[in-house]
Amino acid sequence: MNALSELGKLLTVAKIPWQTGAYTDPAPDSYVVLVPLGDTFDIMADNRPQFDVQAVRLSVFSKGNYNLIKNQLIRTLLDADFFLSDRRYLDYDNETGYHQYVLDVEKHYEME
Amino acid sequence: MTLKLPDDLADRLSALQKSSGALVEKALEAGGEVVLQQAQRNLNSVVGKGTKYASRATGELERSLGLSPVKENSTGRDIKVGFSEPHFGGVSNAMLAALLEYGKHGQAAKPFMTPAKRSAQKPCMETMRKVFEEGVDDL
Fold it and tell me: What ipTM was reported for this prediction?
């Protein structure tokens, strides 16, 4: 399991349209773009890393009330043991009508 | 019997008290330099890459990335990695950097600052600790 696939499953179950990197399909009124931020090793034992820490940014785009999708996502992410390292409202884009909200998450995965 | 006070230790503690401000500043600058270099590497790797149209990047954004002076804040002192202004043409460097970092509808994000912060955290702390300890040893 990795963070991207786990997040994808959570978003699919929550019926939130999502893609990784960029949303290339015609965009719905609300969607999420997953952006990998980096993987780091953590906690060494016997000269080997014991955990892989994976960080991903969820960029939430919404033309309506972005709080609905934001709150739904935060609950879902916390229930799935993701650590929210940052969350911030970014901007309202006058040209496209989308609000943009960003959630940065991290999760430890035990090395297999 | 004579009792000898630990003058050497007392003198060094006194010297540390006097020079701690300068030592902290030196450690912050050294640590900030580590984060800055990582941010510059990341920024160079994303500017003008994978653009829909031919890139018009001039290198101005990369050149404007730098370190702030050490300043007091509500909890102590800090140093910041960020962009100087203005950018040629009236747009701000910070706005361009935010567009790269977070993207927007129809434009893919190319994060460089958050990954730099993550990957430079341990080397930064290690450098700051080393610089501070060397400063203490030299007292």
Answer: 0.88
